[in-house]
Amino acid sequence: MDLVPKILKEIRIENNTIFRGHSNFDWELKPSIGRYFPDDWSEVLELEKQSLADFKKRSVPYLKHRPESDIEWLCLMQHHGCATRLLDFTTSPLIALFFATDPEEKYDGALVAATYGRRYENVSDDNLFERTNSFAYHPSHITERIIGQHGCFIYSNLPNRPLNNKQITKYRISRNMKHQIRKELEVLGIDYSVLFPGVDGVCKGINDRLIFNLQQEAIPF
Question: Which positions fall inside the FRG domain (predicted)?
C-alpha cells in the first residue's frame, strides 16, 4: 500500500480542513444550480426558493428524519440529486480520494482541500438565500448517506460562479493511478457499500469493479 499514504503526506491539513473529490481535474468548483443556470441569477433565485418549497411538500412521506431548518432541507435535497447552491464535501480525505478516482472518468482527478475558519452547525432560516458570504456547514446526521460519507457542505453565496478562496487547494490525481488507489482504499474500508448504504451502494460497487477490470484488460501489453 504505497499511493494513498504518499498522497496524504502531500496534503496540507489544518483545523477545519474539508475535502472533495473530482474525477476530472478540470471541473470547476461550482454548485449544480449554478452549472444549470450560469447567467441571470436574479430570476433563478425565486425558482430556487420554489424548489425548496416543493421538496418540503413532496418528500415528507419518504423521510425517516424531518429536517429542522432550511439549510438541512437543502443538504437533503443536494444528497438526493436536486440542484442547489451547496457543494458536497467531507471531513475525510480518504472519502474525497475515493470520489476523485471514479473509473468512468478517463481523466486526471482532483482532491480538493478547503479550509474555512468557522465551522457552522446552526444556520438561521432568515435570508438564507441572500447571504453575502460562503461558509462550511456541518449538518446533523440526517441521513445514513451523510453519516457514511462524513458529509459536510460549502454554501455558496454566488452559485453561478466557481468558488474562489485562497484557502482552497487542488491536488492532481493521475488517471493512471486511479485503479491502484481504489484497491488501496478498499483495503482501508472505503467503498460504495459504506458510502451509499443499501442495495444501491452494493450495485455501484459491483459496477465499479466491472469497469476497472474491463479497463485493465483493455491495456495493451
Answer: 13-112
How far, in Å, CA of 113 to CA of 136, rounded?
12
Sign of the dihedral through C-alpha 44, 49, 54, 56: positive
| pLDDT in single tens digits along all 221 residues of the chain | 789 999 988 888 877 899 999 999 999 999 998 888 766 677 788 888 999 999 999 999 988 888 888 999 999 999 888 999 999 999 999 999 999 998 777 899 999 999 886 667 678 778 888 888 888 998 876 778 888 889 999 999 888 888 877 789 999 999 999 989 998 998 998 988 888 877 877 887 788 777 767 666 554 43
- Torsion angles phi and psi, residue 24, rounded to 5: -130, 120
What are the residues facing 87 on neighbouring strands?
A: 154
Taking CA atoms, 140 is separated from 75, 87, 145, in Å, by: 10, 16, 12
Extract the runs of DSSP E, i.e. beta strands, from the chain.
17-22, 86-90, 109-115, 119-120, 135-137, 151-155, 168-173
Q: How many CA atoms lie within 13 A of 130 on its CB side?
A: 4
